[in-house]
């Protein structure tokens, strides 16, 4: 399992911090472990920490009064999220749910704002992070409305390869078909059918460990051709 030090080494925003700044960041972070299905953060709670996934996989979701849920994004290990709510000091607008056993880092808002005041590199990182996040959500809305499920599964895999948002993602993705189903809003059986379509097209390999992407650009083209 990935350690906090390994996760921070993967995070682009730490690379230009001074040793003293990095030491203060490490000293302020609180680590917690969550079992599958546990609420990591609850909608409506104060956004008093920037959240990082040290190891595991979580999803951001909204739940309607009818009980129907909608997944906004899946966040794999090595990634940070929730910066917008911390910047605005607003209550969190979504639930965060662990899809598998996950270890989570909470960087207190006081340290977050201290980094804003003391690190130009951190400010540049956040500008890029917010821009990438906006592009992701615009793309997700487009895909939900225009793509069939096979193409949505393809784009869900592609989205995990954003090097800024998800710097730790490798071509062998340890994700189950059930977890992928949560991200695209489909049952495991239907996701399995979509993965078989993509495998027959030579774009991925599927085995018990997860999904290995053989042709990332091919996955993008597959999704684009379905619009």
Automatic annotation (TrEMBL):
InterPro entries: cNMP-bd_dom, cNMP-bd_dom_sf, Env_Response_Regulators, HTH_CRP, RmlC-like_jellyroll, WH-like_DNA-bd_sf, WH_DNA-bd_sf. Residues 147-217 form the HTH crp-type domain. Residues 13-133 form the Cyclic nucleotide-binding domain. It comes from the Bacteria. CDD domains: CAP_ED. Gene3D superfamilies: Jelly Rolls, Winged helix-like DNA-binding domain superfamily/Winged helix DNA-binding domain. The keyword Cell division does not apply. Keywords: DNA-binding, Transcription, Transcription regulation. GO terms for cellular component: cytosol. One of its GO terms (molecular function) is DNA-binding transcription factor activity. This is Crp/Fnr family transcriptional regulator. It comes from Pelomicrobium methylotrophicum. The lineage of its organism: Bacteria, Pseudomonadati, Pseudomonadota, Hydrogenophilia, Hydrogenophilia incertae sedis.
